[in-house]
């Protein structure tokens, strides 16, 4: 049921009464916008409250409560100007997009007061971690050693280190975590500074700032963002809660909104809960989450790919989505429509797992994703020997510390902030996150754990201890890996095995060109940071007004190569083994205003990383990033894909046997094969060298055991696998012990049977050999 407080009931009664007597009070807004959809269902408590306030201020439809403007005006110009003065805490101007974070305290914040403060300091708005990680790869000294100095805006944590939201357990946990990692929870951020062309010409790595501003910062909720297919969205609260189709066309009934002009919301309707549109579709999240870690499109099973094939019905390539083409690999099992036996058909929405803190923040400034996200897989699934409520707070994000064994238990109460959503029967109690907050939609019901999806479905979650008790494992491999090898649960993330593919985009070749285009005009492009800092009284930023701030330079990007199979493993900021993906493996080229290359295929080094991993060799700043890739599959990776794979362990594809001449110019022409000298004097370089890269970009550990590139720039614990871990993994004899003898024809003839045997026959044969060995 929808939670409605006594104040809401009172407002609803007032609304009905005032609507009944307000036949003479008409909103002139509707004289133009006739047919427009109510922002919520007409009988919802939210809509009743809005209309009650509207009636009290001369607008029986309540338009002015969110948008401001003059409901008595008879012209478009007058209607879209100012606001009703009696709206003491509401709009003080006309707001085209009331969701804009810059005026949300007067719109959405009328009811959802703390959200505005929280979102302004959240990663959704500051993107502090993205800035730190990318500029670390360019070698800017300010962001080395895990420092997080910059965001999209000047912002300060005014209310101290204790979060403004959360249970006492959560607040205590976060204060302690912030005490351990002060750099990952900065108390303030400064706006990412400007750089001039002259500064870049003196220090080419500063071109990274231009790259950051033009390419990487367009997705934060402070701006409306790039309007391309798949990228259309609103601002602030509207970024998520107002839906935009990929094509950007309006499909509602307001006659004043064009239906053949892209850039409009799908309908004038707010989404968020079961009652409000059955939740927020995954595709809305992907208007932003399609670059960087790419977890949004990966969750859908998509990986960007250059070819755009197969051809469509017109003989062309697939339409660009987020300006990319995609190859379908396999969507995350939580996204898959075909559910497990006993559950309804349908997948999970992002919001079904991610909490209000994950998405809106907790009032503190988060410097990285891990600083803000409070959930772990075990929060719902538990472990083979403990139910979720038997696990201690902090399980699976131990940060190499003793977290004790005190069970986290269940919660009888919800956070006040979550009461705006659907309130579900707690049954025996709400499950808790790894940091101690209740999940409002996940409950213990007898021996079952039930997840109530905002989509309207209710799912039974498979709980590992219950599977162990009933011995209901899918197969023997799962039982061995999860129940009998306790070290897996103690040292690995669940998705380390279950993410059998990860998008691997090796080598981010960035050219920042300050020269001129083919028409002789100086290159320039949108500065999303400056545009976001230019806000008018209506809450619109420069880009949303069609006045985007431009700065010199234009960015061109390319890649070395793409993979998805056999993800590499490393250690994440929590100290657990995790999949890695190429983070910001930037190889940069800078062209000055005269068209000269003042940096050609350069890379930076990361001296601070050498200190963290205690080695004399300074790693490259190109980065392999720890990641929860959101590509979980029911069928986990095979044992051999980790225990017998040089790539998985960090030694590169086939142990780094390929692409070892990255730091050399490759010339392909007539050549003296004895000396390697090129015969024609008139020749050109076929493939230019990448300075500082004397290894395959899939390699993070060389043959000497040295880490050659950065593994995660955000947290001090993240790094490549240690030699001890590799030694324990490297049980090559698992298969090779027998099969290496295939070259010994005499021996193999005695012990083998011609032809192939099945897996079952092979297992039985090995079992007989073991017993015979024991005898």
Explain the layout of strands and helices.
Layout: H1 6-21, H2 29-33, H3 45-56, H4 63-67, H5 76-79, H6 113-121, H7 123-126, H8 128-138, E1 150-151, E2 155-156, H9 168-180, E3 188-191, H10 197-202, H11 207-216, H12 238-241, H13 282-285, H14 295-299, E4 302-304, E5 326-328, H15 350-353, H16 356-360, H17 369-372, H18 378-381, E6 430-432, E7 438-445, E8 448-452, E9 458-461, H19 464-470, H20 476-484, H21 486-491, H22 494-498, E10 501-513, E11 524-526, H23 528-532, E12 550-552, E13 554-565, E14 569-571, E15 577-582, E16 586-591, E17 597-602, H24 607-612, E18 620-626, H25 639-643, H26 646-649, E19 709-711, H27 723-729, H28 736-739, H29 745-751, H30 759-774
Parallel strand pairs: 1-3, 10-16, 18-19
Antiparallel strand pairs: 2-3, 4-5, 6-7, 7-8, 8-9, 10-13, 11-12, 14-15, 15-18, 16-17
Summarize the structure.
By secondary structure, the protein is an alpha+beta fold. Helices cover 27% and strands 12% of the residues.
